[in-house]
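README: folding subset

This subset contains proteins for which both the sequence and a predicted structure token string are available. Records are stored as plain text. Below is the entry for Aminopyrimidine aminohydrolase (217 residues), shown exactly as it appears on disk.
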Amino acid sequence: MSPTEALRAKHAADWQAITCHPFTEALARGDLPLDAMRWYLVQDYRFIEDFVRLLAQAIAHAPSLADAVPGAQFLAVITGPENTYFQRSFDALGVVEAGRDQPEAAPTTAFRALMRDAAASGSHARMLAVLVVAEWSYLDWASRVAPGSADLPFYFADWITLHSGPGFEAVVDYLRGQLDAAWPGLAPAEQAAVAQAFARAVALERQFFDAAWARAT
Ligand SMILES: Cc1ncc(CN)c(N)n1
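--- output ---
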């Protein structure tokens, strides 16, 4: 078992809950209440702000140019097509600028703090731990439901497309490969810190979907 597989296996119950979450199941069927989607997108756009900074730090700490390039290409996807997806969705769902001022939910605040801490740690492996959870868990739920029901509106369909398919699988393989390669060279205390960041990120991914789903029920 690779180090990232072993880390994921330690959190199998939470991972399963994320992968089969009622929020993403409803999104893929197309019957997710739009207010829940609006709320989720506003919260997630705040998540993206710190995610971009974390990914940029990970790129800066990559051991070589070859290790940095796939991360930089992924950063271009987040700040390009994914950023545009948010703007198009806010427009289509009528989330005007003022509506984005909704209070920040506890999992959003906690996730942002985790990403900032990882970015400030100077540890490439800790940065990767958070990035791996964020992208791998999304790959797993989105691959399960892709492409979703026929005739999904784009704000549901494109969220699945952005997190599934060969291009996104390659992103996850790259991030996991970086962490798997770094792991054996880490001191035990650093491995523990990486495992802790991984565990926290898994817990927060689940809480993030739980909070969004609470808006739908
Ligand atoms: C909370 C969260 N986690 C992960 C992703 C995938 N980029 C996301 N958009 N939001």
